Amino acid sequence: MKLIPTILCGGAGSRLWPVSRESHPKPFMRLADGQSLLQKAFLRGAALAHAAEVVTVTNRELFFKTKDDYREVNASDLPTSFILEPFGRNTAPAIAAAALQVARVHGNEAVMLVLAADHLIADQAAFADAVRQAMTLAQAGKLVTFGIKPDAPETGYGYIQADGNRVVRFVEKPPLDKAIAYLESGDYFWNSGMFCFTAGTVLRELAAHSAEVLAATRQCFEHSCTAEGDSVSQLEMDSGSFAAVPDISIDYAIMEKSANVAVVPCKIGWSDIGSWSAVGDLSAPDASGNRVQGEAELHDAANCYIQSNDRMVGVVGLNNVIVIDTPDAVLVADRSRAQDVKHIYAGLKAKGHESYKLHRTVHRPWGTYTVLEEGAGFKIKRIEVKPGASLSLQMHHHRSEHWIVVSGMAKVVNGDMELMVNKNESTYIPAGHKHRLENPGVIDLIMIEVQSGDYLGEDDIVRFADIYGRVAPKAASSN
User: Fold this and answer.
1) How is residue 106 annotated by DSSP?
2) pTM of the entire structure?
3) Which end of the chain is more exposed for a tag (fewer CB within 10 A), N or C?
4) Angle 290-296-298 (CA atoms, 0-180°, nearest 5)?
5) How many other C-beta atoms are found inside a 10 Å radius of the C-beta of residue 142?
6) Is the dihedral of CA 35, 12, 45, 272 positive or negative?
7) Could you give the domains of the chain?
8) Cβ neighbours of residue 310 under 8 Å, at least 6 residues apart?
């Protein structure tokens, strides 16, 4: 028997702004123990009996970040594969693509365990037991979902009414009075968004209830490119045909339509970490009900959650408040309205403000860059390039760049020249020159980049060659 944990890693996590942003969404948030939610999801699936491979469906732009997260925790070198979407199309197409891949590699009888990348489960033993029950039902041809025993009348979750393992009905997010009645009845469970079924079963159910989703995904799948490496494979979904795939959730596509659905009621310490209030609840409060991650000085404050990893935060005379401090943005919110943070994210996105999308430190396949300072006509960055990594061969129309090596050694293409730049040395890249930066050494290359010009936007970049497959016919949008 093969179990294939299948992790869906997408979404913006808008309710957890300013830590979660479009290019660094919620699954990559690090908790107090240093692990990201994505890493915890990987370890959760990889630790299960019969796990043969971990499949991850994610956005093309998040591939390298996801692979780096896995590399930190995959001590057993469990095979991993990635299905890379050019843009989001909800959970039904993601699961359909994963099922097609699993069926092709492992056969129709392989059991898929679909996990969200941004949930937290505290009780691994109880989770493993629930998965064993789900696998038995899945092998009997069922579409299985996991129902979480509620401990409060939660209005932010969908519910499942169950009679044993039989699903009676799915219920949308209820008003408070109904949520109280559901809690008291004992036969309603939170819909966790986790699923278990064989690849063959979910493909048959898609064909029966959402044939257009399966047909469009299969068409895209057949036009997609595959690359293989050491214990890692990737399937990059064709962007042209992927645009024709319907945008629909797996719940609407098949779970609410099929008569072949089962539920495993469980109590596994589950949370979807859907707000800063939920994040705060992960740590123990002090005598005044305050929870602090990082440095803070509080006076006459109660029931607050403060997170600040880079600066000291002072709080005076506040109650039930959330303060989240990052290098380029600060959130202050009433804790009872933590769900409304998504409106701040939406407002910033509507204005085109960069802080909805990027942090001051931006991760790239080759390393990171941090904007240290910027003003009219200039921008200063700290660039860190991993050993053996290389930026693309590129050119800028509107800006020139001055590179100063702080640590390590740089191999530089500058126009027609190729040169080595050592520590405390520099080179100048005029606008219009093709150039490339590479780290040929065994330690991180750290350098300071000073940009100058009339336009310094990240979209002023034309790529000619790139070892990470990011060359496009038109201008790209990052270093």
Assistant:
1) H
2) 0.87
3) N
4) 55
5) 23
6) positive
7) 3-271 (3.90.550.10), 276-350 (no CATH), 361-465 (2.60.120.10)
8) 294, 325, 326, 327
